[in-house]
Design goal:
CATH class: Mainly Alpha
Largest sheet: 2 strands, antiparallel
Shape: globular
Strand order of the largest sheet: 1-2
Number of helices: 18
Radius of gyration: 21 Å
Order of helices and strands: HHHHHHHHEHHHHEHHHHHH
CATH topology: ABC transporter involved in vitamin B12 uptake, BtuC
CATH architecture: Orthogonal Bundle
Length: 362
């Protein structure tokens, strides 16, 4: 059953298995293992970024397509559900699904247009075209302030069952009230889990094998009879739709949508960093990379503040660990991860496990 659920793509490393199970249990039980808004927000962000990064890895790691338009589709999903719920006084699931449906149609149309016109050029030109399209869309979202809220974005209400005032049970469960915020978290968690399992199944299907063949040698794949352009367009469409769904889940969690949180180039940069840290061409790399990166983003500054206070007697070290330098140390950690894990954390763990099995069998 587990093998079928994971599409036959097992971790193939004991250490990786333990890490993945720990992350899964931690995210599944996050509302009851933590208290306060910040840890739960961190867990929800990890869930969304796992799907967002995995959908981008479908392009970069499995198909060899370098695109900078991924945040555009992420933002379209967020704006679709956000603007729909912001335009009415009484938010309902029907309105939310209508906004999401329109957003998915727009993402599908843009992904198809970009794919048809841009995938026929060389890789570097395709990357530049997607960057231009994404930048234009972000500027458009910022300037249409009457419709999108401009730079300030839009806050909106959610259906009553997801509002913090809603209580599923009168008594606490494991020390916490199951209110609308907890229910929203589990909507995000299970939505992201289903999307990740879909992507995992996709890359381990015959379709995924063809994508890998295209990545390795597109001319050979074409010679074998595969229409590489069609497969690339399908990969582009599926990645765009998944990114849009991830954006919708993030907007539902935040109850806010704006250009900086949904369309900013910083989001694209984070995606690229996470893909490299976790390992390209490994869906599990999105899980490990997103978890480490989001935790570092949210808690590295706090840890450095504690370290700086503890080393107050050593001025040089205390100054080096000053919280204002957290971005510097985040960059250092990224460089170290690239140095020690050039094929990503998941790739390195799998390689070590394979070498250990080979040595044991020889």
């Amino acid at each position: 059953m587990l093998i079928r659920l994971l599409s036959g793509d097992l971790p193939r490393s004991r250490i990786l298995s333990v890490v993945l199970v720990t992350i899964l249990l931690g995210l599944a039980l996050a509302p009851f293992l933590t208290s306060g808004a910040r840890p739960l927000n961190t867990a929800a962000t990890i869930c969304v970024y796992i799907v967002l990064v995995a959908s981008y890895d479908l392009l970069l790691g499995y198909t060899g397509i370098v695109s900078f338009a991924h945040t555009m589709f992420y933002g379209i999903g967020a704006y679709g559900i956000g603007l729909a719920l912001a335009r009415i006084d009484e938010p309902t699931w029907a309105v939310a699904m209508t906004g999401l449906g329109l957003a998915l149609l727009l993402s599908l149309a843009l992904a198809l247009v970009v794919g048809l016109f841009a995938l026929r050029v060389q890789a570097i030109f395709y990357a530049m075209i997607t960057l231009a399209v994404a930048s234009s869309f972000a500027v458009l979202a910022s300037q249409l302030s009457d419709f999108t809220g401009g730079e300030d974005g839009v806050t909106f209400s959610v259906p009553d069952v997801l509002s913090p005032s809603f209580l599923l049970f009168e008594d606490q469960v494991l020390g916490r009230y199951v209110d609308g915020k907890v229910l929203t978290y589990y909507v995000v968690f299970f939505g992201c889990l289903l999307l990740f399992l879909f992507l995992l199944r996709l890359v381990n299907s015959p379709f995924g094998r063809v994508l890998l063949a295209i990545r390795e040698n597109a001319f050979r794949a074409e010679a074998l009879g595969y229409r590489t352009m069609v497969y690339r367009i399908w990969a582009n469409l599926l990645a765009a739709l998944t990114a849009s769904l991830a954006g919708a889940l993030m907007a539902l969690w935040l109850r806010y949508v704006g250009p900086k949180t949904s369309l900013g180039f910083e989001v694209m940069t984070d995606i690229l960093l996470i893909v490299v840290i976790g390992g390209m061409g490994t869906m599990y790399g999105a899980v490990v990379g997103a978890t480490l990166f989001i935790l570092a983003q949210n808690y590295l500054k706090e840890l450095m503040a504690h370290g700086s206070a503890a080393l107050e007697g050593v001025p040089v070290l205390a100054a080096a660990l000053h919280p204002d330098r957290w971005m510097l140390w985040l960059g250092v950690l990224f460089i170290l991860s690239i140095y020690f894990f050039p094929i990503g954390i998941v790739g390195k763990l799998r390689l070590r496990a394979w070498l250990a099995r080979r040595q044991a069998n020889s």
